[in-house]
Specification:
351 residues, alpha/beta, FAD/NAD(P)-binding domain, 2 domains, 6-stranded mixed β-sheet, 31% helix, binds flavin-adenine dinucleotide
């Protein structure tokens, strides 16, 4: 039996796929789906999120994105719940001449990598997204990017696990032993393999280089769909994005703060998000504020996840930083021994 420690999008996805493959699994988590997965925007956007030094992460992201349509369809079939998977792309927009030059440079880098992106004028951007500010000067459309609602994904995973009678033990793990887990009340659960998927808290249970990176994010409610696709841009040097949901919700995110395990929502964090989002889409300030939350991204020194066995009886599935929702379907495949070349990029042995 596999004992999965942590029931966020990563741990729950692993449990579901293993159970589906006929394996015996138990999930241990005092508060499933309450961590970073509860905060996440749910962008499945490896192309628009590409960064100059992160080509290995891009490879993982593209492979994960390819798996999402089948993953979502099977999860919806198993759970009877929608995950709001949408594949209408991301529009990355620029304002000033400097922003436009930076975006043009990024587009050239994307071309060099063979990524399918389309350059648009300001007018073409507004034709696609009429609510964009008139000051938008141009943009780049990554038409293959997609998104889901992570809260719906974890709800669907928990429902699917319940249907399959996979136990979710609502208790905290305090020690990982070889093939066993000690719980806070002293009880020891025994299996064959422990999979550590405790997100930003993984370092409390094993010697792994994972640190929390705080992200504040808000959800707004709109009576009418405000946007047709994800919109992102740089404003005053900081990135901001808006993600539309099927039910009219618009997610605005997200700050990146190195503040340890601090999860306070601050006035300054929300002010920055709203100030920047309003530059992109002036209408956002008219919307109803539905929810604000801060989550902790599990970050590693090279921004790549840690997936695979560290020793007999212990495997890691953590450190997914900004992309745990995107990477969840691939992570389960890597743990099941698929795609060895990509698995090598995530090997815990690299540290
Ligand atoms: P978590 O969701 O944090 O789950 C860890 C679980 O471990 C928790 O449920 C916790 O209760 C449990 N746990 C902790 N300690 C113990 C213990 N001792 N015993 C048992 N259980 C324990 N990713 C994307 O792909 N796209 C996005 O658009 C995106 N946007 C984001 C926006 C924000 C603001 C943030 C914060 C993150 C975002 N991410 C995004 C990143 C994504 O949320 C994470 O990479 C992903 O959720 C990590 O999932 P996880 O299951 O590893 O961790």
């Amino acid at each position: 039996m596999d004992l999965i420690v942590g029931g966020g999008v990563v741990g729950l996805s692993i449990a579901w796929r293993l159970a589906r493959a006929g394996q015996d699994v138990t999930v241990i988590d005092p508060a499933p789906a309450s961590g970073a997965s509860h905060a996440a925007a749910g962008m499945l956007a490896p192309v628009s999120e590409v960064a100059y030094t992160e080509e290995p992460l891009l490879r993982l992201g593209l492979a994960a994105l390819e798996r999402w349509p089948a993953f979502a369809a099977e999860l919806e079939a198993d759970s009877g719940l929608s995950v709001d998977y949408r594949a209408h792309g991301t529009l990355d927009v620029a304002f000033g001449a400097d922003d436009l030059a930076a975006l043009e440079e990024l587009a050239a880098f994307m071309d060099k990598l063979g990524l399918p992106v389309e350059r648009l004028t300001g007018r073409e951007c507004r034709r696609l997204e009429p609510m964009l500010s008139p000051s938008v000067r141009g943009g780049v459309l990554a038409g293959g990017d997609a998104w889901v609602d992570p809260r719906r994904v974890t709800a669907a995973l928990l429902a699917a696990l319940e249907t399959m009678r996979v136990p979710v033990v609502p208790r905290r793990a305090t020690d990982l032993l070889d093939g066993a887990v000690r719980l806070a009340d002293g009880e020891i659960l025994t299996g064959e393999r422990v999979v550590l998927a405790a997100g930003a808290w993984s370092g409390e249970l094993a010697d792994v280089p994972v640190r929390p990176v705080k992200g504040q994010i808000m959800r707004l409610r709109s009576p009418h769909p405000l946007l047709g696709r994800c919109v992102r841009g740089m404003v005053h040097g900081s990135p901001v994005y808006l993600v539309p949901r099927g039910d009219g919700e618009v997610v605005v995110g997200a700050t990146q703060e190195e503040l340890g395990f601090d999860t306070r929502v601050t006035a300054g964090g929300l002010y920055e998000l709203l100030r920047d989002a309003r530059e992109l889409v002036p209408g956002v300030t008219e919307l109803e504020l539905a929810d604000v939350v801060a989550g902790l991204r599990p970050c590693t020194p090279d921004n790549l996840p840690l997936v695979g066995e560290v020793r007999r009886g212990l495997a890691l599935a953590t450190g997914h930083h900004r992309g745990g929702v995107l990477l969840a379907p691939l992570t389960t495949a890597l743990l099941q021994g698929e795609e060895p070349e990509l698995a090598a990029l995530c090997s815990p042995q690299r540290f």
